């Protein structure tokens, strides 16, 4: 099975990016083989709708779950409609987060944990 993790860099040693829609990368991991691929998040510079765009991108990867720090309501709705579990409040190093998930220490969230547009920041 595959999972996606929002990340600050394109490898398993990266930190989890606390922002889903505007994270720098998504790490897509096959939890059975630990093979992974990294995807640059093209939504990071979008003026609006970054969460929706990122969620639509993720729905095409055939993951069963997304692990991230925060997920807004629009992105959450897209992921939920696609049957993808969202796990928020995640932090730390990607490979450690994967181990925790595989050990059953990550429960799906039932709703967004931040308001719309929470990931926008001034550069």
What do these coordinates show?
- The structure is a single chain.
- The chain is an alpha/beta fold and 123 residues long.
- It has one domain: Nucleotidyltransferase, domain 5 (2-Layer Sandwich), CATH 3.30.420.
- The protein is 23% helix and 19% strand.
- It contains three helices and five strands, in the order E-E-E-H-E-H-E-H.
- It has helices spanning 50-59, 73-81, 94-102; strands at 2-7, 25-30, 36-40, 65-67, 85-87.
- Strands 3-2-1-4-5 form a five-stranded mixed sheet, sandwiched between helices.
- The mean pLDDT is 91.
- Distance between the terminal alpha carbons, to the nearest Å? 36 Å
Low-confidence stretches: none
Q: What is the CATH H-level superfamily?
A: Dinitrogenase iron-molybdenum cofactor biosynthesis domain
Mean pLDDT: 91
**CATH architectural type:** 2-Layer Sandwich
Helix content: 10-25%
Order of helices and strands: EEEHEHEH
CATH class group:
Alpha Beta
Shape: globular
| Helix-and-strand structural type | alpha/beta
Number of helices, counting only DSSP H or I runs of 4 residues or more? 3
Q: How is the CATH topology named?
A: Nucleotidyltransferase, domain 5
Classify the beta-strand content into a percent band: 15-25%
What does the main sheet amount to? 5 strands, mixed
* Total beta strands: 5
Q: What would you report as the Rg, rounded to the nearest angstrom?
A: 13 Å
Main sheet: strand order: 3-2-1-4-5
């Amino acid at each position: 099975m595959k999972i996606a993790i929002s990340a600050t860099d394109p490898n398993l040693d990266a930190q989890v990016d606390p922002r889903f829609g505007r994270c720098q990368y998504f790490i897509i991991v096959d939890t059975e083989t630990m093979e992974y691929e990294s995807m640059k998040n093209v939504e990071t510079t979008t003026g609006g709708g970054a969460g929706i765009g990122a969620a639509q991108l993720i729905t095409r990867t055939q993951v069963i779950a997304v692990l991230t720090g925060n997920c807004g309501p629009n992105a959450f709705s897209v992921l939920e409609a696609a049957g993808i579990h969202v796990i928020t409040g995640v932090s730390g190093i990607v490979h450690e987060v994967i181990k925790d998930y595989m050990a059953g220490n990550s429960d799906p969230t039932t709703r967004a944990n931040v308001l719309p547009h929470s990931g926008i920041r001034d550069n």
